[in-house]
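Tutorial, part two.
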Amino acid sequence: MIKEVSQSVSQDLELQRRIREGDNAAFADLYGRHKQAVYLYCTRFLGERPAAEDIFQEVFLNVLEKIRGGMEIENVEAYLVRSARNRCLNSIRNRKYPADVDDMQDFLPGEDAPDAGEIDDLQRALNRLPADNREALLLCEYEGYSYEEIAELTDVPLSTVRKRIFRARRKLRDWFTTGSART
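Running the prediction step on this input gives:
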């Protein structure tokens, strides 16, 4: 795993060098390596595809400008996700985009496809969670980040990440066992 990470980092550093030299194909490669993770993060965080797509594009345009300006980014994926996170939070704070979670059926992990009622219930329940708890839960459950990675991405202590995920899961479980997820 460590070898894969260091190889990925060295590939990203090489692509950045080529981008600074004006190689447009290198940016296409860098974009291809990280687009899915960033797009899914934005979409899951905001729940609205048009808003997520706007932020997704802003993130990649920004990273291209930074690299062309001489910045060397050690961990490109972490940088992109952190940038996406900050932009998503700003868009919610500015009420530029709604903070609800739509179309969850596209993002529910594995197993059988839930029916429309279950998806609606999940959407409502996720919307009722405090934003910080919802974010930590989405990063863990849908993005597959470890608690340590979430702590780094969100700039909070590991213990806070654990509490947020625990609280989110407990709230969801309580709402679904009492039937109040539908309200």
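Residues 95-111 have pLDDT under 50 and may be disordered. In part three we will examine how such features are distributed along the chain.
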